[in-house]
Write a structure and sequence with these properties.
It is a single chain. It is built from 21 helices and ten strands. The protein is of the alpha/beta class. The protein starts with 7 loop residues before the first helix and ends with a helix.
């Protein structure tokens, strides 16, 4: 995902597209609002008729029993219609949010790591929660008000036109000023809303990262420093929020003032003409009752316009997340890969990062699988980049990678991953049980198979010592386990998957000698039975590998067996020299 800002036109197109998810409820809300408007006009007419009859036609309340009963009956009817309109609009907003979140969850599941790698978990969670939630005001309040505004104003306008043309003229002059003023304010508010959402995204992402690494922060005594950074981010968010609220309150005050002045102007003009005998009381009172209702939707629109701006400000990351994902149909109709893949071809594959750093110079080579393969080199040589490319977690800037004859694209990536067991340098454990983490992605795993995988990974003994054995909750990221224990659970996870190809990135880094020895023993056996592609700094294992790639400064400088490279490759000899000296 990227942070490119979408145009207002594009955002409105997306909002219109999602409107169809709750179209029935929105239409029902519009119908209820329309009927409530007609009842309102009827109520105002009845009230004006009753007051005019009592004051000027000597009618008694007894003679107006039918009119009074109808007026009282219309009150609960109107309240019920208003409630129905609000309920329908809220139901539509809830339905849209629910289905939109389902779409986002589905897209995240189908979205590869190329699309997600620039976004932290906190930003993604913020998109799924707060930013989707921000759409409710648009669909539940702004859109129903906007949809019912035109015909309601037209109905009142036509009614007043038959009673008083001067009041109609005042309405024609003053009514357009409210939405005009509202849009002028909105031009500056939209930018501040976007800045507010960006600040909230950064704050959410940073807070989640801090919480996930709180143990390390405590160990290295940096928790106070991070708390200070969080306080600064929170204060920045508070200031940006208050700036938006200040504009919202001031604009609402200005719109209320403009509407009040317009109503007062109509009232004054009606009052003078009643005093001079130029206007009938019924007509004047009727118009005076309708004038506030004429400006009320405009005032409401001004208030709810900020809900529109908030929705537009929250829309960027939602749309980008949806647009950057692979469609399920693409995976469904993809080409069928051989199982397992025999060769991986690099055809002029190069990687250049956004800051113009070169991660990998154009590489043309072939990896023959069904053997153990090591990728070695100094730090920053491009080893992990090659691994990320093989896994499909990194998109090449140039060239292409072929699995047999199939390009490694989104359409085949899902099938490719099914053939791979992946053990990163720092495995991630979910906030579930030990069993859930070993059988990750399997709904109802066989417990004996999980235990067998754990025994092969030398993890069964320490799992048995945990409070609830395989049902022990390990916490997000495995915070309740040591690094060696996490690595052995990751190894058990790979064994449980039973994939034909293993891809491993420095599995024994930062581990104690005993844990390293156990994991190396398992990997040695895997290398004899399946394809093993491993990035390693442990040069003592290289003699056991069938094939070795030597990387240097983003370039493949040599490949061959341990014996061939030891005899003919000076970069490989340079890498081995500290180890040889240590052995002596």
């Amino acid at each position: 995902m990227n942070t490119t800002h979408l145009s207002a036109k594009t955002k409105l197109q997306w909002l219109k597209r999602w409107r169809s998810l709750g179209q029935f409820s929105l239409t029902l809300s519009l119908l209820f609002n329309g009927l409530a408007g007609l009842v309102l006009i009827l109520q105002a007419g009845l009230l004006a008729f009753i007051v005019n009859a009592v004051l000027f036609k000597q009618a008694t309340l007894t003679s107006l029993t039918l009119e009074l009963a109808l007026l009282l009956a219309l009150l609960p009817i109107r309240l019920g219609l208003i409630w129905g309109a609000n309920w329908s609009a809220t139901e539509a907003a809830l339905r849209i949010k629910q289905q939109l979140r389902e779409q986002l969850y589905l897209q995240i599941q189908t979205l590869d790591s190329i699309g997600l790698k620039d976004d932290s978990n906190g930003q993604i969670i913020n998109t799924l929660t707060d930013k989707v939630e921000a759409l409710e005001g648009y669909y539940a309040r702004y859109l129903p008000t906007m949809s019912s505004l035109a015909w309601l104003l037209l109905a009142i306008f036509i009614t007043v036109l038959g009673l008083d043309r001067i009041s109609v003229l005042v309405m024609l002059v003053t009514a357009p000023l409210i939405p005009l003023f509202m849009m002028l304010i909105g031009q500056g508010t939209e930018k501040r809303n976007q800045q507010q959402w960006q600040t909230l995204s950064r704050l959410s992402a940073y807070l989640l990262e801090v919480l996930q690494n709180i143990t390390a922060l405590k160990l290295f005594n940096t928790s106070k420093k991070e708390a200070h950074v969080l306080a600064q981010l929170s204060d920045h968010y508070r200031i940006s929020t208050m700036q938006v609220l200040r504009i919202a309150f001031l604009s609402s005050l200005a719109l209320e003032f403009l509407a009040s002045v317009s109503i007062a102007l109509i009232a004054v003009l009606i009052g003078f003409r009643l005093m001079w005998g130029e206007m009938d009381f019924f007509a004047g009172f009727f118009v005076l009752l309708l004038a506030p209702e004429f400006y009320l939707p405009l005032r409401s629109l001004g208030t709810h316009y900020h809900a529109r701006l908030e929705a537009l400000g929250a829309l960027d990351s939602i749309v980008v997340l949806l647009a950057s994902s692979a469609s399920p149909s693409a995976l469904k109709h993809s080409e069928t890969l051989a199982n397992p893949i025999q060769t991986v071809h690099f055809q002029q594959v190069g990687v250049r990062y956004a800051d113009e750093r070169i991660g990998l110079k154009p590489l043309s080579a072939t990896l023959k699988l069904k053997q153990s393969i090591a990728i070695v080199g100094e730090s920053g040589a491009g080893k992990s980049t090659v691994l990320q490319l093989i896994l499909g977690l990194q998109a090449p800037s140039s060239g292409q990678i072929l699995l047999e004859e199939h390009p490694l694209t989104t359409a085949v990536r899902g099938q490719w991953w099914q053939q791979i067991a992946w053990i990163p340098q720092r495995p991630h454990l979910i906030a579930g049980s030990v069993l859930d983490n070993i059988a990750l992605g399997v709904k109802q795993p066989q417990r004996d198979q999980v235990i067998a995988a754990a025994q092969q990974a030398y993890a069964h003994e320490f799992i048995q010592t945990l409070a609830h054995g395989y049902d022990t909750l390990v916490g997000e990221g495995g915070v309740r386990l040591s690094g060696g224990q996490v690595q052995r659970i990751a190894l058990a996870r790979a064994l449980f998957k039973n994939a034909p190809i293993w891809v491993v990135d420095e599995p024994t880094a930062h581990l104690d000698a005993e844990t390293e020895r156990l994991i190396q023993a398992v990997l040695y056996q895997i290398g004899r039975e399946r394809t093993l592609i491993m990035v390693t700094h442990r040069l003592q294992v290289l003699a056991q590998m069938d094939w070795i790639w030597v990387m240097s400064q983003g370039e493949l400088v040599a490949e061959g067996t341990h014996e061939q490279l030891l005899a003919n490759s000076s970069p490989y000899q340079t890498l081995l020299s500290p180890f040889e000296e240590g052995r002596e």
